[in-house]
Structures are given as C-alpha cells and as structure tokens.
Amino acid sequence: MKVTIDGQSIEVEPGTTILQAARMIGGEVVPPAMCYYSKLKGSGGKCRCCLVEVAKGSEADPRPMPKLMASCVTGCMDGMEVNSKSSERVQEARKSVTEFLLINHPLDCPVCDQAGECDLQNLSFEHGKSQSRFIEEKRTFEPENIGENIQLHMNRCILCYRCVMVADQLTDDRVHGVMDRGDHSNISTCISKAIDNEFSGNMIDVCPVGALTDKTFRFKSRVWFNKPYNAHRDCDKCCGKTTVWMFGDEIQRVTGRKDEFHEVEEFICNGCRFDHKEVSDWIIEGPREFEKDSVINQNNYTRKLETVEIATEDQILLGREQDRKKISMPAIPLDKNEEEDFKHGNI
Amino acid sequence: MSIESISLSGRKKVVSNKEMSFLERMYLLAIVKGMIITIKHLFTRKVTILYPEQVREMSPVYRGQHQLKRDELGRENCTACGLCALSCPAEAITMKAEERKPDEKHLYREEKYASIYEINMLRCIFCGLCEEACPKDAIYLTTSKLLVPSSYDREDFIFGKDKLVMPLDIAMKNAQLKNAK
C-alpha cells in the first residue's frame, strides 16, 4: 500500500497506522505522540497530540476525512494522502491540544527531574504558547507515597495510561490504576500500596512527563549535567542493556535505552535499574548519542571535530623559503652584495 | 632612496634639530606656559576618589556581585534548576540540589532548593546570562551593588551561599516596602 504524508510517499504493510508510516519516513512529518507507545498493546488515541489531516481517504474512496484523525489509531489505506506538519489546521489543533494538556500541569520544570527529556516540554516548545489563558486554580492532589523506588507526582500527570499498560503487560500483578472519573481521575495504588513488581520501574521510562520519576535519582542532578553511556551487564531477568547516567565516577541513574521517539528499545528489570549503581556492575560500551538539538548534548564532545584547514597556498602564509632565511635568520648572514642592497632598499 | 628615509606608514616625521635662540634657551616662557596649565588643573573637578571610604555611585544596570534573592516572605527563590550553570559561558557556577524538609517551608519557596551554590568569581565574566536564564527570578547581578573584592588566595574567590544569598533584613525591608504600597 502506498501512503503519502506531507508529499513524501512510502510503501507500507496493511494494518500499519499513519503514525507508524510517518515514523518510517522520519524527520519533520512525524506527529508528536504523548500516549501512543509502540511497545505497549492498546496504547494511543487518548492525548490527541498526533492529529493529522487526511486529505484523501484512499484510492477507492478519494473523499477527504471531514475531521482531523488521531494518526496513532488510524490505519493506512492504499493511496491515502495525509497532511501532517504542512497543514494549517493540524498546527492549530496541536496548539489547542497542548494548551489543554498544560491547563492542569503545574509547570514546575525547574523542580522536575524529567526536565530535559520530557515529551510535554518538547511538545510545548514546538506547539505551545508562552502565555496561559487559564486563570482558575489548577487541579492539585495530595502527594502519595507509592514505594521505595518510584516517585509519583500526580499534579504533573496527563493521564496517558502508559504506566497502567506497563503494569498490565509487563508485571504479573498490577497494583495501581486510574481512580475516580473526569477531572478527579488520578493515578493511585488502591489503598496506599507500594509498587514493587519486578518490571514496574519501566513506568518511569514510559511516562511522557515527570509524573513518575526515579526516587533513587530524585534531585540528584539535572539530566544535562549527567554523561549518558550505553552499558550492559548479565542479567537473568532482562536483557541487561541500559543507559547509565554518570556524574564523574558515580552512576546516578540507570534507564532503558530510548530511541529517537523516546521509546525504550528493551524493557529492563528493577534490579538493573535501582540496585546496581556501582561502576563495577556494568560493562560500559561508549557514549550514548541523542538527537542533535537535545539539551542532553550539552558539553558532549562525542562527535569527531574536524581540523580546520585554510584553503590558501602555503606560500602566502609562510613566504618563500629563500626569503625567510635571508631576512630573519641571524645564523645565515647576508653576503656583502646583498647587505648593500638591503641597506638601500630595492631588494 | 634609502630605507632609512622612507617610512612605510607614511607618517614618519623628521624631528627638527634647529639651534634655539637666547630667549628660548632661558626657558622662562616655557615655564610660565607650563605653570598656567598646572594652575588651571587645580581648579578642575577631581577625577579620583578615596576608594574604600568613598564609593562611586553605580549605574542601575551595572553588573557586580551576584545575589540570590529571597521573596517577600524571606524564602529563597532558587530551586537549583541548573539553568544558570547551563547558560554560563565560563562554567563558573556549580550547585547541588536537596529536597526541602517539611519543617523548612519558611526557608525555601519550592520543593527543591540549592544546598550548595557556588560561583567562582575568577571564572565569572559578569555577562549576566545566568540572570537572563533564571526562571525563578532568583539570581541578579544588579541588586547587590557590590564589587567582588580582591584577595590574595584563589580559594577566597569561590563564593558560596553565605556570601550570595540576600541578607534577611534586606528581604524584610523589601516586604515592608511592598506592603506599604
């Protein structure tokens, strides 16, 4: 099947969604996604960030779709034409969605540990306004302790349900979920229970905002002051392939390896994430690379720097060999004739 | 033409070496001329001040020693977000964050605060980028109205929170001023 997104065509398998097709193309056409997570079944369709305009439904039915479609849950049709970033309507819609998501967000990025690798931060950087029209009081929740390893900040949550799906699909017993309805809905364990399942730490990685953060890393450092390295160790529970975030010789945080769409490549177990913070536990492979404009690249010199060569002839910079010797080197004195010439000028 | 008499810049002047007359050799006229200039300067405004006792008035945009501000309740504004250190072109700023305890709510405005905040004044170039980057209105170079003093030891130039944080009495005065309005 052939799909065209923002003028770029690609052949895809039947059953691919528009978002997946856009990710195959890559670059600017990829819609932002706050709730969709390719590794979690059933995710997507909640945040409405990935809205796109379908200008031509398919080859068989070329009518455009009347409303903007959530690209993460809309399947591709043969001959479909989609406008993503190029469409004025889509830009406007994303702006509105961002404004809605930020209504109850506390905007405490200076305090938040997720700042610098936060999807909501990226989204509002791209599509957000610098001002807020919301004058009412923001919705707040009482802080709740959900265990030793994970810190919950319900105020920052955008209710993407990713963490619930992680608990459902990766761990054997889900102890937390979304309580209450509407404006009151909040992530919580049923009756203040600790989340200590073996793979529960992946909630931190999948959380697009700073609602679930690593308690062992809490306020230790900002992400851009850490040096991220790819590392691995032998683990009998998971693949053991991680990114370790170091400050000097100290491993401050261990996360999964996130790809360009900020999705972990492979989920890791809690043992790797929280309990192994000695350098001797890990085999460090090398520096982890991030997208060019990420703040994590601050002070990162992993790229090879080229030496600058001025494209002029050597003679212009240095002068002729014989001239340099005669004028400046006392070890090779001028002979009588030359000295006479030099004195009267006219060399 | 010899190389001595040509000037490459074209600005070379040959000093005249002519013989002086008797009157000129007495130097009387020259001395009087010089004295007039000297006496004229006695009555002009002095350009120097007695520095440690007297301090010049600073321009309102003058950038001197940094100050970490407190709000009108006397709580520290700084939340150790690290943006000043990130923006600092000289890498002069370091900090360490700590979580606020429940009984410290009157000391720090946010959940997180800087337990260590150091500026190396030898590195600092007083560009003011930290002030521009600060999202919490915490660091200012214009409010302290202080020059960074000189010293013999390099260690003396690492300014910690003891020197940088706004004194409480100034914070209280600011609060009173605000209430009076």
Automatic annotation (TrEMBL), chain A:
GO terms for molecular function: 2 iron, 2 sulfur cluster binding; 4 iron, 4 sulfur cluster binding; metal ion binding; oxidoreductase activity. This is NADH dehydrogenase subunit G. InterPro entries: 2Fe-2S_ferredoxin-like_sf, 2Fe-2S_ferredoxin-type, NADH_UbQ_OxRdtase_ferredoxin, NADH_UbQ_OxRdtase_Gsu_4Fe4S-bd, Prok_molybdopt-oxidoreductase. It holds the Pfam family Fer2_4. Residues 1-88 form the 2Fe-2S ferredoxin-type domain. Belongs to the complex I 75 kDa subunit family. Its cofactor is [2Fe-2S] cluster; [4Fe-4S] cluster. PROSITE patterns: 2FE2S_FER_2, 4FE4S_HC3. Keywords: 2Fe-2S, 4Fe-4S, Iron, Iron-sulfur, Membrane, Metal-binding, NAD, Translocase. The keyword 4Fe-4S applies. GO terms for cellular component: membrane. Residues 89-128 form the 4Fe-4S His(Cys)3-ligated-type domain. It is found in: Membrane.
UniProtKB/TrEMBL annotation, chain B:
Its main location: membrane. Pfam families: Fer4_7. One of its GO terms (biological process) is aerobic respiration. SUPFAM superfamilies: 4Fe-4S ferredoxins. Residues 69-98, 115-144 form the 4Fe-4S ferredoxin-type domain. One of its GO terms (cellular component) is plasma membrane. Its EC number is 7.1.1.-. The keyword Amino-acid biosynthesis does not apply. GO terms for molecular function: 4 iron, 4 sulfur cluster binding; iron ion binding; NADH dehydrogenase (quinone) (non-electrogenic) activity; quinone binding. It is an enzyme of class 7 (translocase). [4Fe-4S] cluster 2 binds at C88, C124, C127, C130. Binds 2 [4Fe-4S] clusters per subunit. [4Fe-4S] cluster 1 binds at C78, C81, C84, C134. The keyword Thylakoid does not apply. It is a peripheral membrane protein. Its cofactor is [4Fe-4S] cluster. It is found in: Cell membrane. InterPro entries: 4Fe4S_Fe-S-bd, 4Fe4S_Fe_S_CS, NADH_quinone_OxRdtase_chainI. It catalyses: a quinone + NADH + 5 H(+)(in) = a quinol + NAD(+) + 4 H(+)(out). Keywords: 4Fe-4S, Cell membrane, Iron, Iron-sulfur, Membrane, Metal-binding, NAD, Quinone, Repeat, Translocase, Ubiquinone. Belongs to the complex I 23 kDa subunit family. NDH-1 is composed of 14 different subunits. Subunits NuoA, H, J, K, L, M, N constitute the membrane sector of the complex. NDH-1 shuttles electrons from NADH, via FMN and iron-sulfur (Fe-S) centers, to quinones in the respiratory chain. The immediate electron acceptor for the enzyme in this species is believed to be ubiquinone. Couples the redox reaction to proton translocation (for every two electrons transferred, four hydrogen ions are translocated across the cytoplasmic membrane), and thus conserves the redox energy in a proton gradient. This is NADH-quinone oxidoreductase subunit I. It comes from Flavobacterium weaverense.
